[in-house]
Design goal:
- This protein has 2 domains: 5-121 and 141-200, Trna Endonuclease, Chain: A, domain 1, CATH 3.40.1350; 204-350.
- The chain is 34% helix and 23% strand.
- The protein is built from 9 helices and 15 strands.
- It has helices at 12-24, 32-45, 91-101, 142-152, 164-173, 175-181, 184-200, 214-231, 330-350; strands spanning 55-61, 64-70, 75-82, 109-115, 126-129, 132-136, 158-162, 204-206, 236-242, 246-252, 261-263, 268-272, 282-286, 303-307, 327-329.
- Helix 2 runs antiparallel to helix 6.
Length: 358
């Protein structure tokens, strides 16, 4: 088996290059299959529902990852490509505005958010700034932040979010064409997407090597949206990805103040995706040092840690054999998260005193 180039070319720049290269193949006359794949990619995956006549491909035009000029300037496609990072600093708004400043109308502009990593649907409303935690009810999730561009610019020709699942399904659907094309680049990319998707949808997590895996983002997001919010109505949640190192959930009480940004002085429980990596397994509590009623959690200025007592859980369905192997089942992790939320809700949020323990 030949080595896959995307084992080594795994950065966003490499993916930028692939997307640009694939779109450029629309202009390929010598290989009609590659032309056909490029057209399908642009129209079916990127959602550009027009009759294509010409495609011009550029990269890093006013910081836009990939810019397609279609039909000699009739339409423009802004492609924002992500792997592990997320949209920031109003990127999408700035990119649309840059096109409008060049004299283009909203109706000429398609916007595509292309991401092979997890796209979070849980708002990031809790954040740390200048030695304090703040709560801002106006903060959106990554998915919401992308979607809001349509309400800001209702006249856009189109907005498409290409998730890993959609990207995988597209390349799987054209696997026969890829084989006919004779392109190792296409084969390698499709194989790499299949590998990432299989990892993303796996029912197990690698205990010691998997903390950065996108499966953690999906696992945490699914738990928050489909289980925790339904079962623990006294709790609020935030999902984040810490500096490319690990996924984490912040769990805290409900926001009782008015909308907007304000200081947040309630205890925050932090669960990280490195929880099974062979170190001392801990949960973390943030911002409890100035709250006397939470003295049982107080240890350091900004946080205290709680060592998980493997094998001594009060609940019969939790035991050490489930969590100390090379692989950990997603279903078992959700059981542990459920127990953590239940304990935090019972002893910290509802009672406001007592010792947190599993």
């Amino acid at each position: 088996m030949n080595p896959n180039i995307y084992k080594f070319a795994h950065t966003e720049y490499a993916q930028d290059a692939f997307i640009a290269w694939l779109c450029e193949n629309y202009n390929q006359n010598e290989n009609p299959i590659k032309h056909q794949i490029a057209e399908k990619f642009i129209k079916e995956l990127l959602g550009i529902n027009i009759e294509l006549k010409s495609v011009k491909v550029e990269t890093q035009v006013k910081y836009i990852d990939i810019l397609l000029t279609l039909n000699d300037g009739e339409f423009y496609v802004i492609i924002e490509d992500k792997k592990y990072s997320k949209v920031h600093d109003e990127q999408l708004r700035r990119y649309v505005e840059s096109r409008k400043k060049d004299g283009k109308t909203e109706g000429q502009i398609f916007l595509v958010y292309y991401k092979t990593g997890h796209i979070s649907a849980t708002p990031n409303f809790i954040f740390y700034e200048k030695d304090n935690y703040y709560y801002d009810s106006s903060r959106l999730s990554e998915k919401q932040e992308v979607e809001q561009i349509k309400s800001r610019y209702p006249g856009l020709a189109g907005l498409t979010i290409c998730s890993l699942t959609q990207i995988h399904n597209f390349f799987k659907s054209i696997s026969g064409l890829i084989q006919q094309s004779g392109s190792e680049i296409l084969e390698d990319y499709a194989d790499e997407i299949a590998r990432q998707y299989n990892e993303y949808t796996s029912v197990e997590v690698d205990a010691k090597e998997g903390r950065r895996d996108e499966i953690w983002g999906k696992l945490f997001d699914d738990f928050i949206l489909n289980e925790a919010k339904r079962k623990y109505k006294n709790l609020s949640y935030k999902l984040d990805y810490y500096s490319g190192n690990y996924w984490e959930i912040y769990i805290t009480g409900p926001n009782t103040k008015l909308d907007g940004k304000h200081l947040y002085n309630e205890p925050i429980l932090n669960v990280r995706s490195d929880i099974f990596e062979g170190k001392t397994q801990r949960l973390y509590f943030f911002f409890v040092n100035d709250l006397p009623r939470f003295s049982s959690l107080k240890k350091y200025k900004m946080s205290s840690s709680y060592i998980i007592p493997w094998g001594k859980f009060k609940r019969q369905h939790l035991n050490n054999c489930q969590y100390l192997g090379k692989k950990v089942a997603v279903a078992d992790i959700k059981l542990l998260l459920d127990a953590i939320c239940d304990e935090f809700n019972r002893f910290v949020i509802k009672n406001g005193e007592g010792t947190f323990g599993l």
